[in-house]
Design brief:
about 375 residues; alpha/beta; Purple Acid Phosphatase, chain A, domain 2; 2 domains; 11 helices; 12 strands; about 45% helix
Length: about 375
Amino acid sequence: MKRIVLGLAFLSVAASVFVGGHLYLAQRLVLDVGFPKPVEGWLLSGVWVLAASLVAEPIAERTLPRRFSRLLAWPAALWMGVAFLLLVALGASELLVWLLGAASEPSGELVAARTRAAGVVALVAVATAVGMRGALAPPRHRRVEIRLPRWPAARDGYRIVQITDIHIGPILDRRFARQLVERVNALDADLVAVTGDLVDGSERHLADEVAPFADLRARDGVFFVTGNHDYFSGVDPWVARVRRLGMRVLRNERVTIGEGAAAFDLAGVEDHRSGLYSRGPGSDLAAALAGRDPQRAVVLLAHDPSTFREASRRGVDLQISGHTHGGQIWPFGYVVRAVIPWVAGLYERNGSRCWVSRGTGFWGPPIRLFSPAEISELVLRPGTP
């Protein structure tokens, strides 16, 4: 019942934002500008066709062959990002108009409306071009040294390569997966961590697209934890597929890497909010850490940085997460920060550290504005930060 109520509440809010946002765009960018009637009609039709594509795309993804659904995925995903940027730019222009004062004459109001619309469209066009270049470029390699007091001296310089939020699905495909595997393998990691949101779509439709991940290699293995989109896409079939790809899936459990003084624990939990949209076990950090030697360092793989609140209370040395995409499209990161205070980079709390990646792919719009995708290489060393 709780999931039903939350689902209905979310759908109500989403529908209101969706319809209200498009009405606002139509008013400010078409109706207020005073286009000739035929042009006005075409533009309004274009706005609502693009709006309809956002509704039609997930339906097509589940019902049509992939080669057809991808034709709709590109315009729908791109419009999602462009519409967001238009709303942000128009909102900023409303504030600017309020500060400067609106023109009192009707002719002045029309000129101001046209100037504002032209400026907003031009600004968003540039931001979209820059953002698309950022999203479609290869992920950056980001190398970070992290010092941990309990880290075994025998493993000084131990390297964990993290990829996360890859989102193989409507746009990113097998080719991207293959290129990513080649780059990760070239780093010759001690351990590879895939921290969730591998896919967007069913295992039935995307099994061939993720096949290159079977070639991921690391001396101590490749490990995977679930993300929220893996749950949305059918978590149990995907967990089974990931295991067939050769990854060790940690579902509220841990393993010991190495022996004796060189050993450390690697733990992994289910997505932080998985209990809201699944009848599965949900995230259970207590179970993942149960029975471990408290003198031994522990590294936690958790898709959502929100897990860090509990992890820092339980003495986890390092948590490795993704989920936030670093906001993906500026200024959305500020919205993310209001919900999750750990958005991108390295954080400390109660002596524990948390690394949050900006993600390796992208979700939805093929746009990354001031939040580049990355492959994280974490070099672990003993000692105080």
